[in-house]
Write a structure and sequence with these properties.
Order of helices and strands: HEHEHEEHEHEHEHEEHHEHE
CATH superfamily: Glycosidases
Distance between the termini: 15 Å
Number of helices: 10
CATH class: Alpha Beta
Structural class: alpha/beta
Number of domains: 1
CATH topology: TIM Barrel
Shape: globular
Largest sheet: 8 strands, parallel, barrel
CATH architecture: Alpha-Beta Barrel
Helix content: 25-40%
Number of strands: 11
Strand content: 5-15%
Radius of gyration: 19 Å
Strand order of the largest sheet: 1-2-3-5-6-7-10-11
Length: about 350
């Protein structure tokens, strides 16, 4: 099955789970974190670039925005790498020309009624992939290194806040740091450090643009809620990757201790401990932990989900159908990792 056919099938699945249609964005009062639409769409990786592999051509294709709108989707998360406009050796550098490609993506979203969510997939001092390539670690460096990386991340987010001030929240939001690391106490960084980072980034953005809609990823690679930022007026972005034995079957970049089983996946499935994974298990693992946040009025969105292309297709579809049904029940939107 080719990419276009798969996405069209996903649109049918999502529509079936909805038993309704996705409303067009309203033009009235602007959106705030107190109540967001149930945005649904995709991650577009136009600027998700690695060193030595520059993005050919335009950074983002209009086809993607037009197709999303045609198929009933309304959300594009852009996982950005600051190396595209900055310099990993000099965090004070911000180059104008690459940012014009992000301007264009926001304009394409506006034209096609697709909300654009800008995420720093790599920010100064941290990326879930290849974090050792940064000159200082935002989470686990020395105190001086952590402060240097944090100040640089604030600097870059403030540049974005200035650039896009005045763009309404119904068209644009920010997502601060992609997938904070697993919070292992023996490695020296805990949830409190992430809370410090989020507070600094939010303060920096709001100093420039007080009304900007901001998302913050959960801890533990985006999976777990963060109560320490519940009162900041943010949307919390979670993940739809459990169980990893289904979503990342044979993926070599995932640490082995994150897999529940290494067997060929089924859905439902039993893990290596003999425990069943099914729709109700997904509810307990993915939905229920966010109950305390939701009861405080915090909105939740699934910023990434999906299955690696080695997962048997029928298994992926069955798992996706259960995930979509649960998110519909919870009132959560989503963006598929593309």
């Amino acid at each position: 099955m080719d990419r276009r056919s798969f996405v069209k099938n996903l649109a049918v699945m999502a529509a079936a789970a909805e038993l309704g249609t996705i409303p067009a964005p309203g033009q009235g009062a602007d959106i705030t974190a107190a109540r967001i639409p149930r945005w649904r769409g995709f991650n577009l990786q136009g600027r998700f670039a690695m060193p030595g592999k520059p993005t050919p051509g335009r950074a983002f294709d209009e086809f993607d925005f037009a197709a999303m709108a045609e198929w009933g989707f309304d959300f594009a998360r852009l996982p950005l790498n600051y190396w595209a406009w900055g310099d990993r050796a000099d965090w004070s550098v911000i180059r104008e020309e690459p940012l014009k490609e992000i301007d264009r993506a926001i304009d394409l979203g506006r034209q096609h009624g697709v909300h654009v969510n800008l995420n720093f997939h790599r920010c100064p001092g941290y990326c879930i992939n290849g974090r050792e390539l940064e000159q200082a670690d935002l989470f686990s460096g020395t105190a001086a290194q952590r402060q240097k990386a944090q100040a640089a991340a604030v600097f870059h987010w403030q540049a974005f806040a200035r650039r896009y001030k005045g763009v309404p929240n119904r068209e644009l939001s920010f997502d601060l740091v992609n997938e904070p690391p697993k919070m292992r106490s023996y490695e020296g960084y805990l949830e409190e450090r992430y809370v410090e980072i989020v507070k600094a980034l939010v303060a920096g953005i709001r100093e420039v643009d007080p009304s900007r809609l901001i998302f913050a990823d959960g801890i533990n690679i985006g999976q777990s809620p963060v109560m320490g930022i519940a009162d900041l007026g943010l949307v919390q972005s979670t993940r739809g990757y459990l169980p990893k034995a289904v979503s990342h079957y044979t993926a070599t970049w995932v640490p082995k201790d994150e897999f529940e089983s290494f067997n060929i996946p089924t859905w439902p499935m039993k893990d290596d401990q003999g425990r069943t994974w099914d729709k109700e298990r997904l509810r307990r693992e993915d939905i229920d932990p966010y109950g305390p946040l939701v009861r405080k009025g915090v909105q939740v969105h699934v910023g990434e989900w999906g299955a690696y292309n080695k997962t048997p297709h029928a298994v992926a579809l069955a798992w996706m159908e259960d995930s979509l049904a649960l998110w519909k029940e919870a009132g959560w939107g989503f963006s598929l990792w593309n």
